[in-house]
Design brief:
heterodimer, A: 479 residues, mainly alpha, Cytochrome Bc1 Complex, Chain C, 2 domains, two-stranded antiparallel sheet, 20 helices, 2 strands, 60% helix, B: 173 residues, alpha+beta, Rieske Iron-sulfur Protein, 10 strands
Chain lengths: 479, 173
Amino acid sequence: MSASKRLLQWLDERLSIKDDMTEALYHPVPRRESYLDYLGFAAVFVFISQFVTGILLATVYAPSLALTSDGLPYAYHAMKVLMSEPWGYFIRSLHFWGASFMVVVVFLHMLRVFYIGAYKKPRELNWMLGVLLLVTVLAFAFTGYLLPWDQEAYWATMVGTAMVGYAPLVGDWLTGILRGSEFLTQATISRFFSIHVLVLPITLVLLMAAHIGLVFRVGVTEADRALPPGWRKKHVRGTVDIPKGMVPFYPYGTFGMVMTVLVTMLALLAVAYFFLPEIQAPADPLNRDHYEPKPPWYFMFLYQFLKFVPGYYWAQVVAIVVIPTVAVLLLFLVPLLDKNPSHEPRRRPVALSAMASMVVLLVGLTYMGQKSTVIPPTEEVVTQAKWSDVSKIFQAYCASCHISTTSGGLSLASYESTMKGGQNGAVIVPGKPEESLLWLVINGEANQYNVPPMPLGGQPIPATARQTIENWIKDGASK
Amino acid sequence: MAKDHSAAPPSGGDEKNPLADWLEGWTPQEVTRRKFMSVSMWTIGGLIALAYGGLGLKFLWPPSQSNVPLEEVGTSDEFKIGDPPVLKVTDNQGSEGGAWIVRLENEGLVAYDMHCTHLECPFTWVGNQFACPCHGSTFDIHGQVTHPPAPRPLRRRLVVEKDGKVLVGGIIS
């Protein structure tokens, strides 16, 4: 007997692992495989990458706001030091992009599982574990976001934790527990750090172990169709029994997994190498630079959604607390709500239409939210301006509020809605800039109409862009 | 009842699951050794969990705003009726915070916390009102909402004038 066999036997005599290992490695899988079925494994890989890069970052970073000799809070200073050195910067980039990869891979994994109906009996519990894992991943992203302590981190977390405050009865208390103070302080960054590096990794590892354990326990959906009827019942655990037309998981399936991991890794390395993440100015609790808070892209749909909500208190509670909670709950209960036993896409019109609408909604809101970020339009004055020229300016400076009619009834999303105006009537009088409300507000001259200068609370639109708008109105505000 | 739940304990004796038995109807006269141990185990376990839960909660409980000490931000003659509000830096439990201070005709000296009552973005004084860049809320000089989505008037902070100095404390409304 070889040494490795003897070692295995020695272990088996003490742990009884042989049957479980045989089952894990040599269960039958269909000969024809889809790499999409290995997305879950890609998620495991991204998590391991986050784990390793996270440990490396923790050797440099500390969640302290004590001021260093350069007058910066230590947490921010540590990020600066890290990013001043090529390998440090690359590790940070890997961890930064890893968060986005995690969200994307988990989302795609869920879509695939939903599409093939893999959440149906007997795999309902594994879908539910998956939803808990999704929530954990989002919690990771949310808590990690604060740690660099720059403007974006600070204000996104301020808004995010303030949202919790809308929960009925316990809201203010929950916000207090999360922040550890009235607003964001040393207590907040310490709490977020310990959640991010202690609570969540343990939670994720436990949930993931259960999730993967169940996959081995119950078997995969794709094998169900290929297996002869009654195979699972007759099968004796620990024996190798590969039916005709099928192959053992090892090495056929595991090869596909490794390929999936390789592709994911190459993509992550490439993105992290070519797109190094920036760090903004250090967090300024007084926001002297009038920074306009925006969430990271994976929470953009929520940010965009909130813009469509009317201003009443209870509408806010419904939008901020009730709808997201109900949405997660519905997602969790999908296996119990969908009683259709079929796995065939054509026989699941309701479920798949619901899935498609959700995807369109999420992608659409994310796209709209991203588009409303400030993209500096051309710095030069356009003399014979058309709608396309001024539309770019509106997109950059006005669309974060005036994308629908919730702000002053004015939407600058299209030519027609712009010409229609808002609750104060038309905002454009073709040929006459001084009589156009829009021109007056961006030049801060509309006080007699009781409309504050725009952009509200922000820096004025650059003079060149204002001149372009003036030219466009003067020339008749054509399309 | 399912068979599995009433499976015999390995050591024989009473052939019912002690916990299931206890749930079905517990009367003081029937306290067996087994029941006593079972009840004690769950009680002690629960108490240990409660102790640690309480300890954690007490530790994490946020400090009260009323503990914020008064802090000097300027002199009385800096703030005159008719002047626009001024943002003053204050200490916020070890981090920076701020209050907009203005002297109003009927209300006297007023200090507004610098965070919007919608989602706590920082607002600024623009033209003739407070405006928030995040979601477009506006407030008048009295802190009342003039444009949603902010659901509540601006929060006021304790403000005291003493010996010609202006002192600001915690949030009072």
